[in-house]
Every structure is written in structure tokens, then in C-alpha cells.
């Protein structure tokens, strides 16, 4: 397989890695969102369950400070030392570097309404059509959801280069990659499913 404008993808030991992004500082939320509760379950637990239904392996991307707080059953990847604390692209790059795979399904922990059905539909929707570096979700109501996305293997160098160069914005990176945007309605007709919890629930 050769992505548009890219080099051939070599064989990888793992097909699909679920990449659970749980490393944010959660300043607006006031406490680590990964451990906040939604309908009685921690955000990270709900996201892990959502990814597990469609992925061969699930890796939690978290800061070194938060890593010990996750259950032993979770496989946690902290940022590479030179990328530590530099946002979601650093987390993506660190997981890609340490866990080579054909593709990565990314899900931020602060979208706890996204469940196994939506992730299975995302995987199915991205297995067809033209090849791309990234296939990300957007909603007319919720807007662009760049971290609810599928990334091809072999992008670690590109992401590291971006982070090391001080370009930490996900949208700007996607503008420079071969990115396909998918309608969120393919995953679920209710846009509320894709709500990003930036402040605690009342």
C-alpha cells in the first residue's frame, strides 16, 4: 500500500492500535479529565471500552504524572522525553514510535459518549475509498473533530518533526497531510454524541 504522495508502508506487527488520548492537563476542567465520571464510569474507562471493540491493541497516551493512576490492565505510553507535555501530537507521535502499526484509531478521553458502535463504524468507514494519511471526523453541529480520527502507520517522523519545530496544532498539521474528512452522521445521527467535555458536568 502506498499513500498518496507518500512512501510504501512496510508490514507491521499489529494491524490496528486504539490510541486513547488521556494526557491533557485539563486546565479548563479543573482536574484530570481521564478520571472524571460520566454515568458512573471514568472517561478513560469508557474510551478504552469503545476502542477495544474495534482494535487489536489499545494504548493510553498519558503524562508521566498521570500514568501511575491508571489501572494495571491499561497499557500506558508516556511521551518521549523530548516531546513531553507538548500536546496531543506529542502523544500521537510517542505511541506511533513505540507501537508500530498499520493504522491508529485515535479517541480523546473527553468524548465519553462515543462508544464501541461509533468506533466500529469509524473503522468500517475508513477502510473503503481513497487512501489518505488521516481520515478525521467533522460534524455540521459539533465542528471539526480532528482527534476522532484514523491515522496510517509511518507518520511518526512527520509528527515528531512538527512538534520539535514548535508546530503543535492538530488542524494545521492535518492541512499539510493528505486528510479526508468524514461526516459524523456516518457514525451516529445525534451530534450530541460527539460533545467534548471541557468543563465539569453540573
Automatic annotation (TrEMBL):
Gene Ontology MF terms in the entry = GTP binding; metal ion binding; nucleotidyltransferase activity
Q: Which Gene3D superfamilies does this UniProt record tie to the protein?
A: Spore Coat Polysaccharide Biosynthesis Protein SpsA, Chain A
Q: Which domain of life is it from?
A: Bacteria
Q: Does the keyword Signal apply?
A: no
Question: What range(s) does the MobA-like NTP transferase domain occupy?
Answer: 18-175
Q: Which InterPro entries match?
A: MobA-like_NTP_Trfase, Molybde_CF_guanTrfase, Nucleotide-diphossugar_trans
Keywords in alphabetical order:
Cytoplasm, GTP-binding, Magnesium, Metal-binding, Molybdenum cofactor biosynthesis, Nucleotide-binding, Nucleotidyltransferase, Transferase
Where in the sequence is the signal peptide annotated?
none
* GO BP: Mo-molybdopterin cofactor biosynthetic process
Is the keyword Glycoprotein in the record? Answer: no
Report the PANTHER family cross-referenced here: MOLYBDENUM COFACTOR GUANYLYLTRANSFERASE (PTHR19136)
Name of this protein: Molybdenum cofactor guanylyltransferase
